[in-house]
UniProtKB/TrEMBL annotation:
<comment type="similarity">
    <text>Belongs to the ribose-phosphate pyrophosphokinase family.</text>
</comment>
<dbReference type="GO" id="GO:0006164">
    <property type="term" value="P:purine nucleotide biosynthetic process"/>
</dbReference>
<comment type="function">
    <text>Seems to play a negative regulatory role in 5-phosphoribose 1-diphosphate synthesis.</text>
</comment>
<dbReference type="GO" id="GO:0004749">
    <property type="term" value="F:ribose phosphate diphosphokinase activity"/>
</dbReference>
<dbReference type="GO" id="GO:0006015">
    <property type="term" value="P:5-phosphoribose 1-diphosphate biosynthetic process"/>
</dbReference>
<dbReference type="InterPro" id="IPR029099">
    <property type="entry name" value="Pribosyltran_N"/>
</dbReference>
<dbReference type="GO" id="GO:0002189">
    <property type="term" value="C:ribose phosphate diphosphokinase complex"/>
</dbReference>
<feature type="domain" description="Ribose-phosphate pyrophosphokinase N-terminal">
    <location>
        <begin position="18"/>
        <end position="91"/>
    </location>
</feature>
<dbReference type="InterPro" id="IPR029057">
    <property type="entry name" value="PRTase-like"/>
</dbReference>
<dbReference type="GO" id="GO:0005737">
    <property type="term" value="C:cytoplasm"/>
</dbReference>
<keyword id="KW-0007">Acetylation</keyword>
<dbReference type="Pfam" id="PF14572">
    <property type="entry name" value="Pribosyl_synth"/>
</dbReference>
<dbReference type="GO" id="GO:0005524">
    <property type="term" value="F:ATP binding"/>
</dbReference>
<keyword id="KW-0597">Phosphoprotein</keyword>
<keyword id="KW-0545">Nucleotide biosynthesis</keyword>
<dbReference type="Pfam" id="PF13793">
    <property type="entry name" value="Pribosyltran_N"/>
</dbReference>
<comment type="subunit">
    <text>Binds to PRPS1 and PRPS2.</text>
</comment>
Length: 322
């Protein structure tokens, strides 16, 4: 973890120790596999700068931890709200992050949040590194990611395809195991004339692809690649429908567990992620993984915030669905 403090005057302290009193401090923290330790490191550093009378404390988190846990499922907790509250309480005055899983997470903070976008870098990679990208189609591996796919397709002037009917994921009711209210009909619990109708359970249809991918390059886009089972299944479906090359592009490459091996053995030709999360080890295990550097936009955001300049330039042409 690095702390960048802008020093304008000479300090009587030794050269390797600088005072943060009255300075703009930028705490840069990348998320490691031990995410809880990483969060505590940042909270302690932010609190130390706060008690040392720093003028402002800006946290730079390229990937915001626990961002997937931003909704209440059953009687669960909204963990990302807890993390946001802890960061504000520790003393953060500003946050710079990139591609939050849900943009509504910004509302969990009572400080300014700059949610930068990696899509310009990924679009540039498509145009420069995929020679025949004009023959490509942007694919959403589920209806939930259709808006992101549509945004990419409109900017590249390409078609769009949506995969519908994938297998049950870990967030389903069957795996969750916490059925409330119980499915067993009880007697005497409520008045007979006030019986509450049971909601019909969801049943996903067989896998279908809405859109033509035959003889095309399929580019699957999403914000996070963690458990790659759904991406592997989507790639197999696209191959069966006639796609001759398959790319997967996302901002955050968590690539946990056996993800590199599954990618290497799958029909996926290339996985492109940014360097918001370190994944050097995964790249050694799977040469299909490629990295796009987004450090330029983070450094420009830091410069603009420190100099009091407008951040609008970094969000030009950014739409609601980006």
């Amino acid at each position: 973890m690095f702390v960048c403090a802008h020093i304008l005057s000479l300090s009587p302290l030794p050269s390797h120790i600088q005072s943060v009193r009255g300075k703009d401090v930028f705490v840069i923290q990348t998320m490691s596999k031990d995410v809880n330790t990483t969060i505590m490191e940042m909270l302690i550093m932010v609190y130390a700068c706060r008690t040392s009378c720093a003028k402002s404390i800006t946290g730079v988190l390229p990937y915001f931890p626990y961002s997937k846990q931003c909704k209440m499922r059953k009687r669960g907790s909204i963990v990302s709200k807890l993390v946001a509250s802890m960061m504000c309480k520790a003393g953060l005055t500003h946050l710079i992050t990139m591609d939050l899983h849900q943009k509504e997470i910004q509302g969990f903070f009572n400080i300014p949040v700059d949610n930068l976008r990696a899509s310009p870098f990924l679009l540039q990679y498509i145009q420069e590194e995929i020679p025949d990208y004009r023959n490509a189609v942007i694919v959403a591996k589920s209806p939930a990611s259709a808006k992101r796919a549509q945004s990419f397709a409109e900017r590249l002037r390409l078609g769009i395809a949506v995969i519908h009917g994938e297998a049950q994921d870990a967030e389903s009711d069957q795996v969750d195991g916490r059925h409330s209210p119980p499915t067993v009909k009880t007697t005497g619990a409520i008045h007979p004339s006030m019986e509450i109708p049971l909601l019909i359970p969801k049943e996903k249809p067989p896998i279908t692809v809405v859109g033509d991918v035959g003889g095309r390059i399929a580019i699957i886009v999403d914000d996070i690649i963690d458990d790659v089972d759904s991406f592997v299944a989507a790639a197999e479906t696209l191959k069966e429908r006639g796609a001759y090359k398959i790319f997967v592009m996302a901002t955050h490459g968590l690539l946990s567990s056996e993800a590199p091996r599954f990618i290497e053995e799958s029909a996926i030709d290339e996985v492109v992620v940014t360097n918001t999360i370190p994944h050097e080890l995964q790249k050694l295990q799977c040469p299909k993984i490629k990295t796009v550097d987004i450090s330029m936009i983070l450094s420009e955001a830091i410069r603009r915030i420190h100099n009091g300049e407008s951040m609008s330039y970094l969000f030009r042409n950014i739409g609601v669905d980006d």
